[in-house]
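Below is a filled-in request sheet from our internal design queue. Each sheet records the structural input a requester submitted and the sequence that came back. We keep these sheets so that new team members can see what a complete request looks like end to end.

REQUESTER: design group, bay 2
PRIORITY: normal
MODE: inverse folding
CHAIN LENGTH: 341
BACKBONE (tokenized):
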């Protein structure tokens, strides 16, 4: 009987005839560009989706229809699968309650490891992207599952959160099967994982880590640049600035840390909570067409905290972009990694 994950001629959405097998434990990375079918494969393995054609087995069982198989799987989505007004604490508690008793982890450990103590009472929809990712990752410690499927494990995390996530995943891969979906090549090296290359919905190749090391340059499609930038207001709208690079820079994430911005302006958030829903409108200060609502004059020397996640096509553009960003503000927590093409 199959002990790992088995796909045999599987079709679903963008996935066309996916076929592969894994061992019973260890780390595997589904590697490919956005839209290649990695997330669909993970959701099929987790039993969230049912294949239109073909067979998916996890530990020799159908993860979609077999409840015993479902209970032995931890699926970490790239989006939190919570009800609209559900709090972070109730989300984790429900997940623990639906875990078989023999595999239940420590609730306090899962909360403290990813620093969730201050947000357990907050509705999930109010959390930042990074907080939602940490909330999802904490499920890894709530259920001691033999099969672990994680979608984009480091997305929206700062350096500390990323390191904690990777350390935990590497530790768990020693006793469980861990299957990740990512476009970051550096994740493979950190885990010394075997690689399943996915392109256009097809499993193109499967490489051991040793084979991957010898030919990783052929899989590279660009660079992922993640940074926090204290942006100078006089530098203008950062989105307009990035448009100058054309097709050489793809913007995956660009948002303002509104809470930090308002606190820097001396504005008391009062009863709005830790994660108020506030929008920032970039506009010319000399414009006569001001939006309705309160208008605040920024204190002298105020910098605007901006989170960036960019995909850059080549090393030369990365160098020029970093220099330009440093001219536009103060660059903090910069991380550059290779991504699959």
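RETURNED SEQUENCE:
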């Amino acid at each position: 009987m199959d002990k790992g994950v088995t796909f045999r001629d599987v079709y679903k959405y963008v996935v066309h005839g996916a076929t592969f097998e894994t061992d019973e434990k260890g780390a595997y990375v589904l590697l490919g560009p956005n839209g290649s079918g990695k997330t669909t494969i993970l959701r099929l393995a987790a039993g969230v989706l049912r294949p239109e054609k073909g067979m998916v087995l996890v530990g020799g069982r159908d993860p979609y229809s077999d409840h015993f198989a479902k209970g032995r799987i931890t699926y970490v989505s790239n989006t939190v699968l919570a009800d609209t007004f559900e709090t972070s604490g109730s989300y984790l508690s429900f997940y623990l309650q639906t875990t078989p008793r023999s595999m239940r982890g420590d609730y306090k450990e899962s909360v403290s490891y990813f620093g969730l103590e201050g947000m357990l009472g907050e509705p999930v929809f109010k959390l930042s992207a990074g907080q939602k990712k940490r909330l999802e990752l904490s499920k890894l410690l709530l259920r001691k599952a033999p099969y672990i499927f994680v979608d984009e494990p480091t997305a929206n995390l700062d350096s500390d959160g990323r390191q904690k996530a990777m350390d935990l995943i590497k530790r768990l891969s020693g006793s469980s099967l861990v299957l990740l979906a990512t476009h970051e090549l550096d994740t493979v090296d950190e885990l010394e994982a075997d690689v399943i290359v996915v392109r256009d919905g097809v499993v193109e190749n499967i490489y051991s880590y040793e084979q991957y090391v010898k030919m990783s340059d052929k899989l590279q499609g660009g660079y992922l640049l993640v940074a926090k930038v204290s942006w100078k207001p006089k530098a203008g709208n950062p989105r307009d600035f990035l448009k100058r690079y054309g097709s050489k820079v793809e913007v995956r994430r660009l948002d303002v840390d509104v809470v930090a911005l308002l606190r820097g302006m001396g504005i008391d958030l009062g009863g709005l909570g830790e994660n108020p829903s506030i929008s920032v409108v970039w506009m010319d200060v000399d414009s006569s067409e001001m939006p309705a609502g309160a208008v605040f004059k920024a204190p002298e020397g105020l910098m605007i905290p901006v989170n960036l996640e960019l995909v850059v096509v080549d090393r030369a553009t990365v160098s020029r972009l970093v220099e330009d960003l440093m001219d536009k503000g103060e660059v903090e927590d910069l991380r550059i990694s290779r991504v699959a093409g």
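SHEET NOTES:
- The longest helix spans residues 159-172.
- The chain has two domains: 5-207, 223-340.
FILED BY: M.R.
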